[in-house]
UniProtKB/TrEMBL annotation:
<dbReference type="InterPro" id="IPR052161">
    <property type="entry name" value="Mycobact_Acyl-CoA_DH"/>
</dbReference>
<protein>
    <submittedName>
        <fullName>Acyl-CoA dehydrogenase family protein</fullName>
    </submittedName>
</protein>
<dbReference type="InterPro" id="IPR036250">
    <property type="entry name" value="AcylCo_DH-like_C"/>
</dbReference>
<dbReference type="Pfam" id="PF00441">
    <property type="entry name" value="Acyl-CoA_dh_1"/>
</dbReference>
<dbReference type="InterPro" id="IPR013786">
    <property type="entry name" value="AcylCoA_DH/ox_N"/>
</dbReference>
<dbReference type="InterPro" id="IPR009100">
    <property type="entry name" value="AcylCoA_DH/oxidase_NM_dom_sf"/>
</dbReference>
<keyword id="KW-0274">FAD</keyword>
<dbReference type="InterPro" id="IPR037069">
    <property type="entry name" value="AcylCoA_DH/ox_N_sf"/>
</dbReference>
<keyword id="KW-0560">Oxidoreductase</keyword>
<feature type="domain" description="Acyl-CoA dehydrogenase/oxidase N-terminal">
    <location>
        <begin position="8"/>
        <end position="125"/>
    </location>
</feature>
<feature type="domain" description="Acyl-CoA dehydrogenase/oxidase C-terminal">
    <location>
        <begin position="236"/>
        <end position="380"/>
    </location>
</feature>
<dbReference type="InterPro" id="IPR006091">
    <property type="entry name" value="Acyl-CoA_Oxase/DH_mid-dom"/>
</dbReference>
<dbReference type="InterPro" id="IPR009075">
    <property type="entry name" value="AcylCo_DH/oxidase_C"/>
</dbReference>
<dbReference type="InterPro" id="IPR046373">
    <property type="entry name" value="Acyl-CoA_Oxase/DH_mid-dom_sf"/>
</dbReference>
<dbReference type="Pfam" id="PF02771">
    <property type="entry name" value="Acyl-CoA_dh_N"/>
</dbReference>
<keyword id="KW-0285">Flavoprotein</keyword>
<feature type="domain" description="Acyl-CoA oxidase/dehydrogenase middle">
    <location>
        <begin position="130"/>
        <end position="222"/>
    </location>
</feature>
Length: 388
């Protein structure tokens, strides 16, 4: 991960760049820049078709081992793939949770039967996934979940509530953390279950956000069922498996996120020029700092992927979440009075969507407070925070 170009890597870059140029055309041409945080409602069915088109060409799950349907790419080529995908403004993929989270988790912890059942359908984008972690009383504190699962014959019966479940309304399956050992507390007695969504006992209620969209949902399990064999990593080992999933979530694909951030920053800079805000020395300084900070975030990510930092995932989340939220605030300042105007149907422009959705960046995916505790306790060895 020294960033030095190599012939094989540059050939691979040219290959993926050419494929994207040739295929983001015709019926897919209008999908450039569509989807993403706060905009997952955009052209969902067309983006699903695009994702399946990628699968047919062998461009899904590129980091997975070849024996599981992937390309077995090393870190450097994974970085190239995600960077070129972002630079092409290719649409946000609808299969992220399957490809980047539950798939690698199954490869690491799943049984051979689970791998055979689920992995091919993730590669082909035939089944979509959502994540059943947070609860009303257990947001970033995963060890405090109260959703319960009881083994009833050859099936688990699941009862409880999840919240902030991204894209649950489109998902076919959910990976759920539930308490399977009665009387257990905290990290003990949790299991990682794979639960079908289309069944009695599963209710999805979309949550209306500030952006007037509903990526997030409440999910209620009332005696929902799944096969006894759909527990990953063994009963009672759910916390360990869930932490591994979170580690996969903050992997190479975050570099593509930073390129998307750069495009947003470029829009903010252009807006500052158009409105004249760039003539303000303070605004200019903040724009320069934003560019420098984004480069720092990128270098940290590359160093983390190279295995040089134990605290990389938590530090990265703190860095990008706070940077992005600040960018949203800066966007409103440079836009001036226009930032306060919306269409009659609450139609938001890109900068308004950036500002409103980025308010959640320091909360979802592990709040700032939780990330600081992780760094303090697990890396620096400081005393644990008092807990009730």
């Amino acid at each position: 991960m020294d960033g030095m170009p190599r012939d094989a890597d540059e050939q691979f870059r040219a290959e993926i760049r050419q494929w994207l140029e040739e295929n983001l055309a015709g019926r897919f041409a209008d999908l450039r820049g569509r989807g993403g945080s706060g905009r997952e409602h955009e052209d969902f069915e067309a983006r699903l078709e695009w994702n399946r088109h990628m699968a047919a060409a062998g461009w899904t799950c590129v980091a997975w081992p070849i024996e599981y349907g992937g390309r077995g790419l090393g870190i450097q080529q994974q970085v190239i793939f995600h960077e070129e995908y972002a630079r092409a403004a290719a649409p946000a993929r609808v299969n992220h949770l399957g490809e980047e989270l539950v798939g690698p988790t199954l490869i690491a912890y799943g049984t051979e039967e689970q791998k055979a059942r689920f992995l091919p359908r993730i590669v082909a984008v035939e089944e979509l996934w959502c994540q059943g972690y947070s609860e009303p009383g257990a947001g970033s504190d995963l060890a405090a979940v109260s959703t319960k699962a009881v083994l009833d014959g050859d099936e688990w019966s699941i009862t409880g509530q999840k919240v902030w479940t991204s894209l649950a309304q489109q998902a076919d399956w959910c990976f759920v953390i539930a308490r399977t050992v009665p009387g257990s507390v905290r990290h003990q007695g949790l299991s990682y279950l794979l639960v079908p969504m289309a069944q009695p006992g599963v209710e999805v209620r979309p949550i209306l956000q500030l952006t007037a969209t509903s990526e997030f949902n409440e999910v209620f399990f009332d005696g929902a069922r799944t096969a006894a064999g759909n527990v990953v990593g063994g009963e009672g080992n759910g916390f360990k498996v869930a932490m591994a999933t979170l580690g996969f979530e903050r992997g190479v694909s975050t570099l593509a996120q930073q390129i998307a951030f750069r495009r947003e920053l470029d829009v903010v800079i252009e807006t500052a020029r158009r409105t004249g805000a760039i003539e303000d020395a303070v605004i200019r300084d903040r724009l320069v700092r934003a560019r420098m900070e984004l480069e720092t975030i990128r270098q940290h990510a590359l160093r983390t992927l190279g295995g040089q930092q134990d605290d990389g995932a938590s530090v990265a989340k703190l860095l990008w979440a706070n940077w992005h939220r600040s960018l949203g605030e800066l966007a409103m300042e440079v836009a001036g009075p226009d930032a306060l105007r919306v269409g009659s149907d609450y139609e938001l422009d890109d900068l308004q969507t950036l500002f409103l959705f980025s308010r959640a960046d320091t909360i979802y995916g592990g709040s700032d407070e939780i990330q600081r505790n992780v760094i303090a306790e697990r890396v620096l060895g400081l005393p644990r925070e008092a807990r009730p």
